[in-house]
Amino acid sequence: MIIKTTDSESGHWYAADGSPAYRIIGKNGKERNTNVRDARELNLVPSVTTVLGLIAKPGLATWLQQQVLLAALTLPRIAGESEENWLERVMSDSKSTGRDAMDRGTQMHDVLERFYRGEHDDYPFYVDQVDASIRIHFGHDQTWEAERSFAYKGFGGKVDLIAKNIVIDFKSKDTLDKVEPYHEQIMQLAAYRHGLGKPTARCANVYFTVNGDVRLIEHSKDDLVAAWDCFQYLLAFYKRKNNI
């Protein structure tokens, strides 16, 4: 049995109709994350971000190493503690920073989703700033749809925000100093627009902070075409590697 959830798409799967298939009921009757073997049996397709997970991320790797070093500096060994136990504490503490950041980002995305779904609430300041930036850039006459999922020719995904010929992906940040899109972020949008049946859609990343700082970057047609080519090669490699 497939369980459809609204969880993050990273590392997840989609059914042929585009519905999320992030978790399943296993043979033992217990709920668990969907894996590659399940995908083969159920004819599921990987998410865009799962495929992009094949790409090395030097910046992220450096940040993770820094968190380990900081944790080691702030967590001295307890008297009589084994090195193995100390290292386990250090690694656990270093990962908590990343988990906290991910949780904050997910919550901020959820708030934007509710806003664009038209749910009435007292929204934080950054929501108005994000919306204003989008409307100034793309016009005030667009009809927006949040969190549409899809499946298309061997891959799937869930898109933050779309209009008739516009695809947007949100990126929450601690600061917008020196923000520049990574190539995989352009690939993500290029894949999304093809997956949605909008191969010529305008695509943009919207970077924002909880303080209301916003930077919208629209990607050029040439960059999106090149990124789509790259994604197709990566998808073919992923499917061959995992025999799906």
Structural commentary:
Helix 3 (58-74) crosses helix 4. Residues 1-10 have low confidence and may be disordered. This protein starts with a strand and ends with a helix. Helices cover 46% and strands 20% of the residues. It has a 5-stranded mixed β-sheet with strand order 6-7-8-9-10, sandwiched between helices. Strands 1-3-4 form a 3-stranded antiparallel β-sheet, with no helix packed on it. The chain is an alpha+beta fold. The protein has helices at 36-42, 48-52, 58-74, 83-116, 125-138, 183-195, 221-242; strands at 2-3, 13-14, 23-25, 31-33, 45-46, 145-152, 155-163, 166-172, 202-208, 214-218. It is globular, with a radius of gyration of 20 Å.
Identify the notable features of this structure and list them briefly.
alpha+beta; 10 strands; three-stranded antiparallel β-sheet; single chain; 244 residues; disordered N terminus; 7 helices; globular
